[in-house]
Amino acid sequence: MSEWPDGCALIELESVTSTLDEAGRRASDYAGPTWIFAHEQTKARGRRGRAWQHPKGNFAATLVLPKAGMPANAALRSFVTALALFDALDYVAGGAYTLKWPNDVLLNGRKLAGILLESLPAGGLAIGIGVNLAKAPGLDQLEAGALPPVSLLGETGVKVMPLDFLSHLACSYAKREAQFTTLGFSPIRTAWLTHAAKLGEEIRVRLPHEEFRGVFKDIDEAGLLILSTSKGPRKIAAGDVFF
Length: 243
Hints:
The protein has five helices and twelve strands. It is globular, with a radius of gyration of 17 Å. 27% of the residues lie in helices and 33% in strands. The longest helix is centred in the middle third of the chain and has 22 residues, at 71-92. β1 (9-16), α1 and β2 (34-41) form a beta-alpha-beta unit. The strands form two sheets. The chain has a seven-stranded mixed sheet with strand order 1-2-3-7-6-5-4, with helices on both faces. The protein has a five-stranded antiparallel sheet with strand order 11-10-9-8-12, with no helix packed on it. It starts with 8 loop residues before the first strand and ends with a strand. The chain has two domains: 9-194, Bira Bifunctional Protein, Domain 2 (BirA Bifunctional Protein, domain 2); 202-242, SH3 type barrels, CATH 2.30.30.100. By secondary structure, the chain is α+β, with helices and mostly antiparallel strands.
């Protein structure tokens, strides 16, 4: 599983502000899919500009797809990436992994990994990925209601070096990407729902100017979250989900 995928480049760096920053800085340099891996990030970020802590031994990388296709397809790469992470994590250390809409991987119901998509010029896409392989970040920057973080080592006792994990993840992603580009989103959607956290249960959704509860029923063919609320069905394109 860990053989490096054909046609995929690797840039290994010692220290960067963030691998997403580096992806944007090198935007004109890519001949094909490229992984940017860093041993250290000094200003890593998550969704909505939130800080992402990167203790030593944790995983940080960005996959650049220079030609990700239509913007709608680019957004669906969050689900492709989540499944690739699930596959790689399950391979290196079996555990109770679940997927939280739209971009987190959970272990034992707590946050293990996050995904962040950013657009690049000329239809390119940067997929930033962080995984708590060795250490769970501190709780001081968590917002109210957010799931506490855990580490792979702390929960499973399995120590995985970041570069070794990258080899597994790159291979897993290449397989899921081939599935997506060949068969479309439908099989990705089905597989993602198989591992979805809180499917069929009530969750809380926070939007910029609104917060409400509903039962998580499904995701549609565009990746939108479908909720059953007291006011009827509702589709959510982007928002923060709380359990």
